[in-house]
Every structure is written in structure tokens, then in C-alpha cells.
């Protein structure tokens, strides 16, 4: 049951508008929500009105508000014409929202309609915002503007504003209390980290999981299905509001297009825009059209095209399509290039390497910049860095990622310019999806350039981002779906986060699996599981990467390495040089 307190000092017309609006909602008839009326004025008409409407009403003198709120635990408190300023200790007892008759931050305080009118504004309006101890300054939830026409009187304007208040406030309440059923698609440590963070959200109702690994399957309800069409049907049946797609494969196969048919919102790109990840040629052409800095390149479709390459060695050879992170090869001379290109064209990565991009080699530090995109606005998260190579000092083969840190040190003004550039490119090309754009950037001596795009959260960058994120992740996802990223402010923890990935010998080619995992001592780090299986309540290794050991603290690297000694299994491998100074 959701308990909502409505505070008013006067006649309570907004109070009545709220009650009437919710009378029609089945939340009231099913007893899922209950309203209470609170006034600091004994003679306020709102108390009479409440009784007439069959709502419990309380006269609570201002000084008694703390005790009253402490005793009655309300999920939400709405200030709807309440003429007092509540102290912080009261505000801490519930979530407070306030209705204010102006377009905040303009005209705070008393007589806001009159202030705007006297200032000869052409428009004013109504704001509903969260309440903080600074008057009329909390985060804005919703605003509606009202034109002040030539010759309009103050009374006419006041009447118009009140009408809008009566419409807006109930809608905002409905929005603030709506809880979401969320489905996460994917089975790795990345999806475990997203699930962990979503579980902390005030807005979460049910968490559904599709193909979770045994290390986190217990934190949600599993939906089984053997194809995406069925998955969408099952999700619909369970009233899923939002789907988060973790890995690239389902995105490239068009899972978002399928869910769209069922009118279920996804955080993820449709098949067309996923080509920014699933086709290197598509991505290069997109960057070329939009003057986004990237390495020079040549497209190769047969051996004759090699002669078109006009830059110097080393070359970076990339399969056009998805190759599970293994499709990139660096060659130092013509012989190696010819041999590799021949292997690729002959199907080394099947269809994915029937076309190739050959790029000039770029040098510099890499940055993973993961951003949310709502179709109009791009909201970058903290810059992170992952450690892609298997061995210390960035030696050995590329992997899915052996560790990560955030925040990564970056040149802020270059990042800002890059975000601007990407945003206008996506706008210009009408990228109509709500999801994620991961820019794999490199800080070269000629400025930031793009190495690759992914259309999903990075793994293991997500593990550190989730620990660094202070704001409610589900709130960010909801704002993405509702195209409100321009108004979304994200808060981050002051301390940095680090992640070290524990893998097994033989990874990435032939992982040695099947060994029992023993956790000893009291671990201070957060463990996000990937390649694990549970049998008879024991955990076993089951693929290449096993556990992301993560921590947000003053010295997260030290903390994580301490804990790693208490996680044992045969064939354990990990990098010992994950740090912030690379
Ligand atoms: P990609 O699949 O395009 O992300 O490439 C995987 C990794 O290969 C990148 O994260 C880089 O470490 C490396 N790489 C890709 N392109 C280049 C390039 N043009 N110059 C240097 N390294 C590159
Ligand atoms: N960490 C790199 C990726 O997720 O592709």
C-alpha cells in the first residue's frame, strides 16, 4: 500500500483535484494507494472537503509535523498549497514534492503569479519539484507553461494557472509513484551489476531476468524463452515496462524492433542503429559524413583493394561484422597484411569478415565513454577505462576485458566537444531510439579520436560505473525512455571505483573450467559473477571470465587485490596491474 500525505493550508482545490483524479484509478479501488489530508490550520476548508470526500483528515500544528510524520510513515508527501517551510528533519521522513505557480527557477517564494505578471512576462507557468531545504529549489519533475496574452488581467492569469495546477499535480503524483517491472537480457557480470543497481531503486517493482548466470539468477524472476518473439510475448504478459539489453548479439539481431511491436520500451538501439557496432563500414561512413575524428581507413572487399591503402604501417585490420571482440588484428608489414586480409576474406570470421576495414594505427590512452541517448539528448556517464589485453603491461591477446577503473582522467574540454559533435550527428541523422552509445575513444596527440562504437554498456566498465553511480539508475532509464535526458542530473560518488576480472587459464581461446570456487573471509568488495555454475549449493567455474571483483572506496585497487586472495579456485588467473595511472 502506498500512503500519500497531502498538505494544504487553505481551501484545498488542488487536494480535491487529486482525489477526483485518483477515484478513477484502480490503484484506489484495489486498495493499493491511500490518501491522507494534513493541514496546519484548524479552520482550513480543506479539512472539511477531505471529510466530504471520505479521506482521513488531520489538523497537525506546524510544530507537531515531525512527530506526526515520524509516526505515520508516508511514501510520498505532496505540498499542495501548504504555506509553511518544513525543516530538513521533516523532509528526511518522506519524499516531498511541491507545487509552485511559476516556471522555476524564476519567481521563487510568495506571490509568484503576481511577480511574473508585474514583471510583464510573456509566459509563466506551473512547476512540480522535489522539496529540499532550499525553498523552491529541488529537482524539477514537471513544468507546464502558460502564455500571458496582451491585456490579460491578474485574475484571468490566476484562474488559468489554477486550472493547470489541477491537471498537472495528479499526473505528477501518478508518475512519481509508478513502479516499473524491468527485464534484463544477458548473462554476464555486466548484467549482474545492472541488476544489483536496479534492485536499489525506489521505482522498481519486479525484476525479470533472461538467461542470467547462476551467480545472480536469485535476485530476479527468470523468464524462459527460446526466441525473442516469445520473450516479448512473455514480457508483455507480465506487464514489463522496460527492457535492458546487455550484449550486442540480440541488438544486432533486432530484439528492440521485436519488442517495439509489442509496445515495450527498451534501453537499446534498433537493428538499423546497432550497425554502428555491428558494421565497422557503417560506423566509418557515419563518422565521415559527420566529421567525427577517427583513424584513416580503406574498405577491402577483394585482394585488389589492397592497392587503395594510402597510409603507413602498422595497419589495423578489422572484420566488418561482429566477431566477439576478436576481429581486430595489427600487422607491421605488407606480407603480414596480405596474409591476414586473405584469411579474413576467406571467412576467418565467417560472414563477419567477408568485408574488411583497414585502418591507420593510432597511439594514445583509451577511454570508454558510455552515454545515454534519448533520441535528442546525449548524457555521458563518467569516463572509464578497461584493460582489454590478457596480461600485465597490456601484453597478450585481446579479451572481453580484464579490469576497469572509473573515473578515467580525461581532457574535459575535448570530451565536451566530442559529445557535442556526436549529439549533433545523431540528431542530424534522426537516430530515433532510446539506448546507449559507447564511444571507444583514444587520446592521440592530435586530439580525441573514435576507435569504435558499441551500442550497449561495456563489460567490465559497467561494473565500475554501477558502483560509482549515486543516482537511481532506473530513474535515468525512465528519463531516457521519456526523452528527458536534457533535464537529468546524474550524481556520482566522490571515491573512485576499480574492478579486477578473475578468469581461468586458457582464456580467451580454451578456458579450463569445472573447478569449485571457494570464498573465504569477509569480503569487502562487491562480486559480480559471469562464468559460474551452481551445483548442490557450490559454485564452479564454467567459462573464461568468472568474477568481476569490484570496489568503490578511497583506494579501491588495494581493497580489491586484498579480497582476491580470499577467492580461490584451480586455474585462477588475473592481471595484477590494474590501476589509475596507466
Ligand atoms: P575495436 O573492435 O574496433 O574496438 O578494436 C578493439 C581494440 O583494438 C581497441 O580497443 C584498441 O585497443 C585496438 N584498436 C582498434 N583500432 C585501432 C587503431 N586504429 N589504432 C590502434 N589500436 C586500435
Ligand atoms: N569493454 C569493452 C566492451 O565491452 O566491448
Structure described in brief:
By secondary structure, the protein is α+β, with helices and mostly antiparallel strands.
Descriptive overview:
There is one protein chain. The chain is an alpha+beta fold and 582 residues long. Among the domains are: 176 residues, Rossmann fold; 65 residues, ATP-grasp fold, A domain (Dna Ligase, domain 1). Helices cover 29% and strands 28% of the residues. The chain has 18 helices and 32 strands. A 7-stranded mixed beta sheet has the order 3-2-1-4-5-6-7. Strand 17 and strand 18 form a beta hairpin. Helix 1 packs across helix 7, helix 8 packs parallel to helix 16 and helix 12 packs across helix 13. The longest helix is centred in the first third of the chain and has 24 residues. It is globular and about 90 Å long. The two termini are 51 Å apart. The mean pLDDT is 95. Bound molecules: adenosine monophosphate and glycine. The site of adenosine monophosphate has 12 residues, from strand 14 and strand 24.
Task: Output the radius of gyration.
Answer: 28 Å
Query: What is the level 1 CATH name of the domain at 2-177?
Result: Alpha Beta
Q: Between the first and last Cα atoms, what is the distance in angstroms?
A: 51 Å
Compute the number of helices: 18
